[in-house]
Amino acid sequence: MCENCGCGDLVQPEHTHNHGTGHDHHGHTHVAINSPVLRKNDALAAHNRALFQEKGLFAINIMSSPGSGKTAIVEALARRFGDAMAVIEGDIQTHRDAERVIRAGSQAKQIETMGACHLDAHAVGHALEEMDLAGVKLLVIENVGNAVCPASYDLGEQERVAILSLPEGDDKVLKYPALFARVNVLLINKIDLAPYVPFDVAKALNECRSLNRAVTSFSVSATTGAGMEPFFVYLGQRMGTGC
Amino acid sequence: MHEFSIAEAIINTIAPIAADPRAVTAVHITVGPLAGISVDSLEFCFSVLAQERGFEAVRLEVRKTGAILRCACGREYEVQRFDELCPACGGLERIVLTGKEFSIDYLETKD
């Protein structure tokens, strides 16, 4: 990986010193760059994506607020997919989530960001080096709990999954548009709490579709297992098709 | 609060291009409303980091674009905020055409 990422080194832009694009403007010069801001991350994400394809992995990046049920969902997936699944866990500190996933039946590698509010493609690439992916068909990356920052970083995943849970409220989609505009799947979690907390599922879904017409949605309870089967089938189809 | 990481990415992109960091007077970037970036935070983080890395005179010039949406009624409209409904029909059924832009466009250097 390090020969790809050049850890700690400055990346040389492909168009460095493109003198042909510099031009004078009355005492100063404009030097064209025209590069995505996260070009280095994007390049490392492309490397991860190529690795997933080479190994026949379907990779998903799960993003949501803290406490919405990401790890409970991943535990349910681990009980279902077992050795066919591997998990990269992102948290500021502790190995708690990786330990939960391992107990539920899948291998897991914990990334402790020690302060960073999101995972990036670099951290994921190094985590992958330490995992045994033989026989694995589904790679789940559980991002740091945060509905804002993780959305900016491509990790190389084929699909992005957002979770919105009933206690958070049905008004959250348009408050965090950058996340919900980028997801393939919206999981509405904790539907077992519907008798206790007001939440208009149709409103949340309509607002998500107003940012992202192609989103697929499932209403689930990771705790009771209600509604999880269609989500398992959805993932199974994507794993089976070799993505 | 990932704007410090973003500021670092900008500095790391321009550093190899700028032979003399002190000659760089501006970095021009474009930010769409779906980039997920707080421009105020980014400007602050960038100013701190730029000083640290020897870009003494640089300023961050941010071009904030709107997102263009196409409503089911056919109307196209531009927003910065996504709770704005279609000005023609008041609907929310729409397609997001643009808004995720996030690029470093060019540097300005003094001669």
Description:
The complex is a heterodimer of chains A (243) and B (111). Chain A has eight helices and nine strands. Chain A has helices spanning 2-5, 39-54, 70-81, 96-104, 121-129, 177-180, 201-211, 228-240; strands spanning 23-25, 28-36, 58-63, 85-91, 107-112, 138-142, 159-165, 185-189, 216-219. In chain A, strands 5-4-6-3-7-8-9 form a seven-stranded parallel beta sheet, with helices on both faces. A two-stranded antiparallel sheet of chain A has the order 1-2. In chain A, a hairpin with a 2-residue loop joins strand 1 (23-25) and strand 2. In chain A, helix 2 (39-54) runs parallel beside helix 5 and helix 3 (70-81) runs parallel beside helix 4. Chain B has 111 residues and is of the alpha+beta class. The N and C termini of chain B lie far apart (36 Å). Strand 2 (28-36) of chain A pairs antiparallel with strand 6 (102-110) of chain B.
Task: Summarize this structure briefly.
The complex is a heterodimer of chains A (243) and B (111). With 243 residues, chain A is an alpha/beta fold. Chain A has helices spanning 2-5, 39-54, 70-81, 96-104, 121-129, 177-180, 201-211, 228-240, and strands at residues 23-25, 28-36, 58-63, 85-91, 107-112, 138-142, 159-165, 185-189, 216-219.
Q: How many DSSP E strands of chain B?
A: 6
Helix content of chain A: 25-40%
> What oligomeric state best describes the polypeptide chains here?
heterodimer
Main-sheet strand order of chain A equals: 5-4-6-3-7-8-9
Q: Approximately what portion of the residues of chain A adopt beta-strand conformation?
A: 15-25%
Helix content of chain B: 10-25%
User: Helix count of chain B, per DSSP?
Assistant: 2
Poorly predicted regions of chain A are 8-20
Broad structural category of chain B: alpha+beta
Q: What gap, in angstroms, lies between the N and C termini of chain A?
A: 23 Å
Shape of chain B: elongated
What is the helix tally of chain A? Answer: 8
Strand content of chain B: 25-35%
- How widely separated are the two ends of chain B? 36 Å
Largest interface: A-B, 45 and 38 residues
